[in-house]
UniProtKB/TrEMBL annotation:
Enzyme Commission identifier(s): 2.7.1.33
UniProt keyword terms in alphabetical order: ATP-binding, Coenzyme A biosynthesis, Cytoplasm, Kinase, Nucleotide-binding, Transferase
Residue ranges that the Swiss-Prot or TrEMBL entry lists as coiled coil: none
Pathway as given in its UniProt record: Cofactor biosynthesis; coenzyme A biosynthesis; CoA from (R)-pantothenate: step 1/5
Gene giving rise to this polypeptide: coaA
Organism, scientific name: Neoaquamicrobium sediminum
Primary residence: cytoplasm
Keyword Transferase: yes
Cellular location(s): Cytoplasm
Full protein name: Pantothenate kinase
Length: 319
């Protein structure tokens, strides 16, 4: 039995060092088969395989235990209520955290790992940027400098989407965003058809809003989650990752004349860096401090990253 520190005893979280977390290998196949390694590599994500073995396999095992428990509960309720035609609904995992902390990368890796479990062969992934208001609306409302802030999303559409998924509806559409045009794609959707797991990823997924004055019930996005993860890192590290990604995109995606940020690929490195610093400080850091970090205590699990995106600590909410 581990000793709990006095602070931890009454905290809602159990805290694990990465080393301790990695030890939870038990009897399940916590190894990667060759074709899985190939699939993970084909994602072209920079997460190294040792880190996947060390942290993400244990996490996928824990999540799969939650999925199996919820499926068992569903079956027992069906027997209890004698309702053969009850529909199974997807298990929804929310992933929150700052811009550039690594949400999309983690979501893609988890999708690959989770779909190998027999209880969840079908895992889908949706990002909340598709629910941003179109640039045309953001410009009209003077919100272009507030992209990613709570008021820049169509929260109604977001809640309708999750509500449809959680009620077991087939073929639910989610709108898509393009980082190339820096705008939502008009008329473009991804169709989500009753997956076993839906991973729903975005900076705003653990946010709450004041309830409207008229007393009508309005759910929070996280009311639809079965499990939520917050990816955390020191602000200085995330700043570095944001600038790094921007400068890399300048050498690649921004070179495309169709790219919204094409003009930045034409600037000197110094001038482009200054633009990135401005976007970080005036938009993303502000949003992190005011709207994202305050949602961290609502997560079921916090992954705390250090340099090079390596997970240093895992905090798991006590049941
Ligand atoms: N585990 C990781 N190891 C190494 N680099 C990573 C890892 N996760 C993310 N990155 C890099 O950090 C940057 C931000 O990651 P991304 O997943 O795009 O963040 P977000 O979706 O939170 O904006 C990208 O350049 C990405 O390649
Ligand atoms: C699109 C984003 C708001 C992230 O959205 P998310 O998928 O987390 O809902 C963000 O990547 C972004 O573009 N922020 C605006 C400032 C900037 O260009 O970095």
């Amino acid at each position: 039995m581990d000793q709990l520190t006095p602070g931890e005893k009454y905290s809602p979280y159990r805290i694990f060092s990465a080393e301790r977390w990695a030890e939870f290998r038990a009897d399940t196949p916590l190894t990667l088969a060759e074709d899985e390694v190939r699939r993970l590599r084909s994602l072209n994500d920079p997460v190294d395989l040792d880190e996947i073995r060390r942290i993400y396999l244990t996490l996928s095992r824990l999540l799969s235990a939650h999925v199996e428990a919820s499926q068992l509960l569903f079956r027992q309720r069906r027997v209890f209520f004698n309702s053969d035609n009850a529909v199974k609904t997807p298990f929804i995992i929310g992933i929150a955290g700052s811009v550039a902390v690594g949400k999309s990368t983690t979501a893609r890796v988890l999708k690959e790992l989770l779909q190998r479990w027999p209880s969840s062969p079908k895992v889908d992934l949706v990002t909340t940027d598709g629910f941003l208001l179109p640039n045309e609306v953001l410009r009209r409302e003077n919100l272009m400098e507030r992209k990613g802030f709570p008021e820049s999303y169509d929260v109604g559409a977001l809640l309708r989407f999750l509500s449809a998924i959680k009620s077991g509806q087939p073929d639910v559409q989610a709108p898509l965003y393009s980082h190339m045009t820096y705008d939502v794609l008009p008329g473009a959707y991804v169709t989500i058809d009753r997956p076993d797991i839906l991973i729903f990823e975005g900076i705003n997924v653990l946010q709450t809003r004041d309830l409207p004055q008229d007393g009508k019930f309005v759910p929070f996005v996280s009311d639809f989650f079965d499990f939520s993860i917050y990816i955390d890192a020191d602000e200085k590290l995330v700043h570095h990752w944001y600038i790094d990604r921007f400068m890399r995109l300048r050498e690649t995606a921004f070179k495309n004349p169709e790219s919204f940020f094409h003009r930045y690929s034409q600037l000197s490195e110094e001038a482009a860096r200054a633009i990135a610093e401005g976007l970080w400080t005036n938009i993303n850091l502000k949003n992190l401090t005011e709207n994202i970090l305050p949602t961290r205590p609502r997560a079921d699990l916090v992954l705390r990253k250090g340099a090079n995106h390596l997970i240093e600590e895992v905090a798991l909410r006590k049941l």
